[in-house]
Amino acid sequence: MKETFGKFIVFEGIDGAGVETQGKLLCNYLRKQKRSVERLYYPDYEGPIGRLIHQYLHKQYEFSVDVQFLLYFADFIKNREKINQWRKKGKIVICDRFFSSTLAYQGLRGFPIKKALELARTFKLPRPDLIIYLRVSPEVSMSRKYKEKKDLDRNEADKKFLKKVGDSYEKLIKGRIFSKWAVINGERSIEKVLKDIKKIVKPKL
């Protein structure tokens, strides 16, 4: 009998792209389809590493790009065995951001992509089956974030930086870095975006 191996799907996008919303909706949809689903969020603000990242994002600390990379990387690595075990049990793992975020953000700030990928291989970081990129403009990003909250972090409040991060993601997509990528226009209604996500995900399961 053939062993079922669960899929690992990551949502990516600049701040305000709808990553959390669509990740949650996809999980709910798959559970209604009687699929076994687990969900992770990054940064994991409930854990000690994520709390330190939160403090950095809100300018309570200043870290070099190397320290930034290692903090985010440690946040992913701490769940490596958990992700692998879930997949071995045939579960679908849905992740709000993952290593690809760090490639985009810390890569833009100067951390070498080649070195990052070498570390991912060395530490056997789980590789997603698919990364879904929700494409939105910096203007849409900031508009959504201001509606959601007033206290924007250092990334969310910087329009020029958001534009550069979007360009950084586009390079990763073009180079098919770290996984297969699917691009969706995230500026439409939540329902239309979800419909496209379902079309992309169904054949992969």
From TrEMBL:
**Residues in Thymidylate kinase-like domain copies:** 11-197
Q: What class of enzyme is it?
A: transferase
A GO cellular component annotated for this chain's UniProt record is: cytoplasm
In terms of Pfam families, this protein maps to: Thymidylate_kin
Under Enzyme Commission nomenclature, its number is 2.7.4.9
Tell me the Gene Ontology biological-process terms attached to this UniProt entry: dTDP biosynthetic process; dTTP biosynthetic process; dUDP biosynthetic process
Give the reactions, separated by semicolons, that this protein catalyses.
dTMP + ATP = dTDP + ADP
Keyword entries, A-Z: ATP-binding, Kinase, Nucleotide biosynthesis, Nucleotide-binding, Transferase
Gene3D superfamilies linked:
P-loop containing nucleotide triphosphate hydrolases
Instruction: Work out whether the entry's keyword set contains Methyltransferase.
Output: no
Main function: Phosphorylation of dTMP to form dTDP in both de novo and salvage pathways of dTTP synthesis.
Which family does the UniProt entry place this protein in?
Belongs to the thymidylate kinase family.
Q: What is this protein called?
A: Thymidylate kinase
